[in-house]
User: Fold Phosphoglycerate mutase family protein from Linum tenue.
Amino acid sequence: MLTVTTRVTGVPASPSSDAAAVKPISTTNSPFPLEPTNRRRLLHAAVSLSAAAITLTLPAQIAEARGLFQMPPFRLINRYYLVRAGESEYEDMGIINTNPVAKTSVDNGLSEKGKKQTVKAALKLKAMGACDDGCWIWPSITQRAYQAAEVIAAVNGISRSYIVPEYSFLDARGLGGYEGRSLEVVSEVYASDTVSPRNKPPPIDDGTPSESVEDVFVRVTQLMSILETQYSGETVIIVSPDSDNLTVLQAGLVGLDLRRHHELSFEPGEVRFVDINSIPAYKQPASAVYKCLNPPSCT
Assistant:
């Protein structure tokens, strides 16, 4: 004999209510006895309905999943402006300084020329209406980038509480053995980049990383993944201490071969709006070798 228990829903749990709510039903006494075959059919129907319900809800769940960011992106949730900070004291002296240990030092701050470049950048953002409806400013914690963010906030009437310092993903590209040398030798780095995005500058033992274009690409992709997950429909101003973070990022967004990132070079204090409509339509040369739809694998 099969015994089925039923519970009346909505009744407060108590010994007395349980005794009244739970009643054994005998299938032999029931006017509709459940045969084994019928029970199997009912179980099969219940499982089928559950599977169908899960199948129907999966697309909506997948559509809402925004944590996995790929380059080039299918779409962007937010509006982005890319800004290179003005010239630093080290750049004014013509010296390469990319060691993250010194990124908050005064010498990594804006030079007098860099301050003027930054004010122009802030005014350009204002003219572009970047923060008319509010904005978030994401600068590297590097001294010159954070100083630039403060200037941008002041000129555009944005509270400093909307400045979000980035502690690692926006560090200036580590140039290893070129550290402390003249800025003129950076051309050697870019010549190496055109051969392979995996080529690294020569190493050094002072703590300065030797980063390839691919290394930078990983960092900026992680940054975009955070921004596209954390915000929705917002305006974000990304402030980098150097050009390479921004050129690699823009190359990834438009699907440009990363070996060509330097062609998108940012001057100190330069501002660019990321036009979402331009992302899938980069006008590459006839040779498809310059197009990269699966960065950093662009061979």
